[in-house]
Specification:
12 helices; 372 residues; binds thymidine-5'-diphosphate; alpha/beta; Rossmann fold; binds nicotinamide-adenine-dinucleotide
Length: 372
Amino acid sequence: MDFEKTIIITGGAGFIGSHVVKLFVKKYPRYKIINLDKLTYAGNLANLKDVENMPNYQFIKADICDYENIKKIISTNNVNGIIHLAAESHVDRSIVDPFTFARTNVMGTLSLLQAARDFWEPTGWSDNCRFYHISTDEVYGALELNRPEGDPSASECGGGPFGDKFFTEDTRYNPHSPYSAAKASSDHFVRAYHDTYGMPTIVTNCSNNYGPFQFPEKLIPLFINNIRHRKPLPVYGKGENVRDWLYVEDHARAIDVIFHKGVIGETYNIGGFNEWKNIDLIKVLIKVTDRLLGRPEGADDDLITYVTDRKGHDMRYAIDSTKLKDELGWEPSLQFEEGIEKTVRWYLDNQDWLDEVTSGDYLKYYERMYSK
Ligand code: NAD
Ligand code: TYD
């Protein structure tokens, strides 16, 4: 079959990547979608069951740091689009093991850029080719919490309910964790390839995502699972840190819009103007989970356990996504209440998925299946 485009989506077996792969495979039967993933602990092909037999989907197990192999994959498949999500993504792991983050997020992105350049540049960067790098709001550092009561009407004076500023596309990079430092570095390399070689690149910086298929080391799936099993909920510090939450399918829709309509060389912030103090979010998670499990209200409030704060814990993230709305017409489609309800329900209905990814059995299975 002749395809209109061939797109590599890196990290397509991970949380956000799997939603992007599924959206593209289903929505664009004329595109060939190659999911290129190393299958680290965070990559799980079970996330892609919906599309694994579709004729326009292909999985390739590969490491983005393996420059020669990536170069071969890009040229053999005549790839003209890359949507790059593969990364080490968990801040706590980056604090313990920063080298792995530098290797994958920085060197991996660089080898992918260079491999794409090797294939695309000799033909004069055809109109069709595009390198789209997915990044995080964490590169901007941390905002102040200077409206501690969370007054929603305060946003009329600028900023959000918890602080008087947002991250915009012009905010200076100021990463604090090894994770965000590595992501910041990769963003700089992508822009350098645009500015130096003329590579058609786009960068987006998104706020915290939530939804189905997120690895249960991140706050929301970890806590839903712990509530279900009546295990302690380890709240870092005082639980006052603020995060800006976006439903993962809304992020995938934004990626679709930006991949097709975004202006080359530009950066777009993606977020839903949906800030939550951790402790308030955790109380909502307990309430919704208990309700769906038929437990009395308040039954699990005592699971909240304040623990030593994360080192260098960023106080507040809040994205201003006005540019994306004004220029490309994207807006989040789900209200938070609806998104959280769907998410809790999904994890409660998919205990097998949670058990599998926490047991490590699936890693052994894929090691056998895909070992060279
Ligand atoms: P994830 O950890 O769930 O998935 C990462 C995927 O990348 C996994 O499938 C893993 O196997 C793969 N991978 C890791 N190293 C690789 C390598 N060397 N070669 C090939 N594949 C490799 O991550 P996620 O939460 O889905 O995040 C995806 C991207 O979105 C990341 O770049 C992250 O920085 C960014 N992001 C995430 C969030 C969030 O809230 N999760 C928010 C904004 C931006
Ligand atoms: P996380 O899901 O790890 O995302 P990020 O660090 O990228 O924002 O954490 C979200 C927030 O929840 C963050 O402020 C840290 C906090 N947190 C806890 O309080 N306890 C936990 O066990 C985890 C994993 C996170």
